[in-house]
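Structure first, sequence second, as always.
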């Protein structure tokens, strides 16, 4: 199985997002808190069109189309989607990205477990439905039967390996997101909105974020992890997840 990057290479000097710039964005995202609420200096960015993805009325599987941030079930919609498939007794169409430092085999059975404590564990019987994106990001893409082995462990049996493009979020990929002129401000703002989503359990806003950022899985992972860190520390810590997500496209300038 080929593990080629899905994004074309880009010279470091052309990237709009710099190491210093994204570092500054993360630092700003983690300071200036008022009474435990989100940071007051949320960047102002222009509105962005979000393409809706209607669910076909005849869809007979549970769609699990997201990026796992790792961590507890209440924050991981991949985990929630697999549990829903089990509960409803249906197969699932899984198009799920997982960030893990574990080695993933190219054939036979494979297990994906996010590198965050207390995460879901997903074992699939055919590793050929897993492909690697940028380093340490893996995509599981298949229609599967789902069996829950424990509270956080799922066993998947591949039924069909065809990609359901009609169900996937549309938008810029990771390279385009990280290289945009307003990348720092736009990604930082999304992270702060996601922190609010977690505080307020705003599932409608969360779905809008998924549709807006789901086509750039590494950045969407970074937004979720950063939002979780901000929400969990009253805005005092953001982590370096956005830096890791955009690392392949960063310039050392700035």
């Amino acid at each position: 199985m080929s593990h080629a990057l899905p994004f074309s290479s880009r010279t470091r000097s052309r990237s709009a997002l710099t190491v210093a710039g994204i570092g500054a964005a993360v630092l700003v995202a983690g300071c200036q808190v008022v009474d435990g609420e989100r940071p007051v200096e949320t960047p102002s960015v222009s509105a962005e069109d979000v393409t809706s993805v209607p669910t076909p009325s005849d869809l007979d599987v549970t769609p699990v189309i997201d990026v796992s941030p790792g961590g507890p079930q209440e924050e991981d919609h991949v985990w929630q989607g697999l549990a829903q498939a089990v509960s409803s007794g249906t197969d699932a169409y899984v198009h799920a990205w997982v960030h893990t430092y574990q080695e993933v085999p190219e054939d036979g059975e494979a297990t994906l477990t996010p590198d965050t404590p207390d995460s879901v564990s997903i074992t699939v019987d055919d590793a050929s439905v897993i492909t690697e994106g940028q380093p340490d990001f893996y995509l599981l893409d298949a229609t599967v039967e789902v069996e829950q082995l424990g509270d956080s462990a799922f066993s998947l049996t591949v039924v069909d390996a065809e990609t359901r493009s009609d169900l996937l979020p549309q938008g810029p990929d990771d390279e385009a997101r990280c290289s945009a002129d307003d990348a720092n401000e736009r990604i930082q703002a999304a992270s702060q909105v996601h922190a609010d989503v977690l505080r307020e359990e705003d599932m409608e806003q969360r779905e809008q974020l998924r549709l807006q950022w789901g086509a750039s899985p590494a950045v969407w992972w970074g937004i979720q992890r950063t939002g979780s860190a901000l929400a969990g520390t009253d805005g005092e810590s953001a982590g370096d997840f956005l830096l890791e997500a955009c690392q392949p496209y960063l310039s050392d300038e700035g």
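Margin note: The two ends are 38 Å apart (CA to CA).
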